[in-house]
């Protein structure tokens, strides 16, 4: 099985990516950098299993054509492999007010939108049907999973909407996806997960019981992980609007204890349900999320994974 290495891919400074105003160009920059690294990596072959045929469409790799079948039927067919089977993929993006926080030159929502755009672009290249659902304390935009001309642009427009709500309600989007999407697929949740774990467990369990694969990318600002205060301060709760007085030492100790406990609970919930949970600091290279997705795919119980298809796409110029 092909296993790309982080060392094969030169890191792109996320600050440089964020300075690109166009969201699609940001995503393309990250994905093409990822593919360029795979071009340079010493990968040979792939471990995919032949599944069925599908009609040839313009843009398909000609090396996949079955010429013997063409000679018999006078029609062009591509061999369709097990890991190429199209599926529905949904990107659930938290746009609550807490995602507007940033201690560096950009915010969590800037990073989360770019992550979502990167996955939308990447999965579209893999011929998956991709949809988007944004949320705060209510459902925002909902775009069903499709694969057609103009669909990527529609998703990127939805992702670019300004933050509006204050609170966070992860329950509603998880319930909506579970109820609306009958066919088993991939759900990628991008959020800071500043929410109670009990209801999260219930809704993740419901998604998993319906056969969906779930990947969570927990997006955090560096200051949220390594919390420090230089002096006594009045801080503003971004979701409630309430001002709170904080003593530096006491606040830091209490915060670290509660943060560590909450992180442990999230890990326990996700591990018990077979949900892939990855924590990403907004200062980390964006292509790390693609590694997390590939690793999740390779750990699926099925014999074939999408890593093989990614390898073939990289070797044949998949980003063209």
Automatic annotation (TrEMBL):
This is VWFA domain-containing protein. InterPro entries: DUF58, VWF_A, vWFA_dom_sf. The lineage of its organism: Bacteria, Pseudomonadati, Planctomycetota, Planctomycetia, Pirellulales. Residues 86-259 form the VWFA domain. Residues 298-320 are annotated as: Disordered. PANTHER family: BLL2464 PROTEIN (PTHR33608), DUF58 DOMAIN-CONTAINING PROTEIN (PTHR33608:SF7). It comes from Rhodopirellula maiorica SM1.
